[in-house]
Amino acid sequence: MRRDMEYVIKLLDLISNEEYPTGYIHTEIEPGVADSEKVKGNLKFLGHLNLLRDAGYVKVNMQYFDDTPYIIDCRLTWDGNDFLDIVENDTLWARIKDSAKEKGIDLLKIPLESITLYAKAKLNEYLGL
Prior knowledge:
The protein has 129 residues and is of the alpha+beta class.
């Protein structure tokens, strides 16, 4: 699965507002339980949640019962909060997008860590630090 940065940003926002799904996340089509579209959405959610966990942006308390993931709790880490602060700051986010566009770079293809480092550097520059 390739990451979808727009989805990542939405997912971080949901997690920060404690609006993420909990309980069983069905990843297989089961008659009367989950339809194929819901399963596709669940697989995308779990895939991106795992990517964010691996990158250190979220902590997830998840267990498996009969190979079905069960999410107990999920929260942003310090780095996850920093990244979300960056994308929620309209001025800083606009500067990052403009810089990427000037260089012909698709912002949504840049790793989270690089965006965060760049944003911190721009913020320090803007503040004269």
